[in-house]
Amino acid sequence: MAMKKLSQAIGLAAMAMSGAVLADAPKLSEVLDASGIAITGYVDAAYIHYNNDVPSSINYFDDNKNTFDLKQAGITIASQPKEGFGAMVNLTGGSDADKIHSVGGSSSNLDVTQAIVQYATGPYTIIAGKFNTLAGAEVIAPTGNTNITRSIAFLNAIPFTHTGVRLAVAPADTLTLYAGLNNGWDEQKDVNSQKTVELGVAWAPVSAFSWTAQIYNGKEPSIVTGVEGNRFLFDTVITYKPIDALSLVLNYDYGKQKDAVFGDTDTKDAKWTAWIAYVNYQFTDQWHMSLRGEVFDDKDNYRLGLSDLGLGDDPSKKTKEVTLTIGYAPSANFEIRGEVRRDKSDKDAFVKTQNIADESETFTDKQTVVALEAYYKF
After folding, report:
1. Measured between alpha carbons, how far is residue 110 from residues 63, 90, 102, 105 in Å?
2. How far apart are CA 279 and CA 213, in angstroms?
3. Sign of the Cα pseudo-torsion (255, 259, 260, 265, in order)
4. Which residue of 37, 73, 346, 371 pairs with 93 in a disulfide if CB–CB is 3.0 to 4.6 A?
5. Residue 297, SS3?
6. CA atoms of 221 and 231, how far apart (whole Å)
7. Position 118 pLDDT exceeds 90
8. Phi, psi at residue 125, to the nearest 5°?
């Protein structure tokens, strides 16, 4: 009997190899569609060149100077029905994964960026786990951005992710309200017993216009003084499309943390603001352009922590950047981008030359970045 079953198994294997069985087998995509599971992902690689010897910390997603870099390889597996229970897992690999990992999370070239369970009923959706922030016009995945490098604000003014719970209520097709409670900024494991409150609104009354506003408020320890103080963030994004080919985006951030830096006699509050504007134009189905301009005012040198020679008694630093990106997409799944970026600070905040032999450095108030990127999404 055992020999007979073995012979049958060999016969079935031979038929499968010849295509007789596989011809009738459903495709993986058909199985996933039937099960309600969606799998998406991308692979992103880039080459970054700096004119200065030391890349600035304001652009730390792209600090691998003059080398080809696997920046991100991401995959998302999700089953999120409009009614009932669902779940989603989003993994990010590559050099960027080291930069986005949360406190208590992974710290290698693989990051569990999002992992949630959800329940949806009618206009209500509640999620629990680890999820992306509501703040900012840019996102972690490169496929959701129009530039190669990220803005100073995305990397320094706002969080990446939160771990907690979030409720979304959509009283109308054009309006969604958010409320949540989480561990804080980029904390998979809370560093204190206090929680952060999240409130948000997303409004799109017409297809040509949308507006979002978010507030985060909660106690967090200062990275400078170690004192636990209230951290507040207000973020808003306005998007306007006067014509199909043109998109105008304005993003504003205001942040404040209590007892964050040292004053003359005691600790004092730290504040930061950012204005970021984007002009995106789609020339053809294949070619597009994105121009970004930004002013980041780190009033107490708390968020950027830039070095300089002439700091004196004024710790504030106002840093500006202008970025021009040209993208070419020969197919819907593949894109190549080229970019030139100029950063300028009101102080000598960038290391221009570095002599390892005598440990000497010279400083400058500007840097130029040239980048080339290619990504494939599926």
Report:
1. 18, 11, 12, 10
2. 20
3. positive
4. 73
5. strand
6. 9
7. yes
8. -135, 125
d(CA 367, CA 127): 42
**Residues 315-339, mean pLDDT to the nearest whole number:** 93
Half-sphere exposure of 148 (CA within 13 A, CB side): 30
Which of 350, 358, 352, 324 shows the shortest CA–CA distance to 338? 324
85: nearest Cα among 41, 121, 138 = 121
197 token code pair: 């409150």
Confidence of residue 307 (pLDDT cuts 50, 70, 90): low
pLDDT of residue 30: 64
- For residue 256, what pLDDT is reported? 97
> Which residue, 89, 51, 94, 39, is CA-closest to 70?
94
Q: What is residue 372's predicted lDDT score, i.e. its pLDDT?
A: 98
The string over 188-197, giving b where at least 16 C-beta atoms fall within 10 Å of a residue's C-beta and e elsewhere, is bebeeeeebe
Q: What is the pLDDT of residues 352-372, one digit of tens each?
A: 988 887 778 888 999 999 999
Place of tokens 């951005």: 145
**Angle at the Cα of 204 from the Cα atoms of 198 and 207, rounded to 5 degrees:** 150
As a residue count, the chain comes to 378
Instruction: Report the pLDDT averaged over residues 160-186.
Output: 97
Amino acid at 12: L
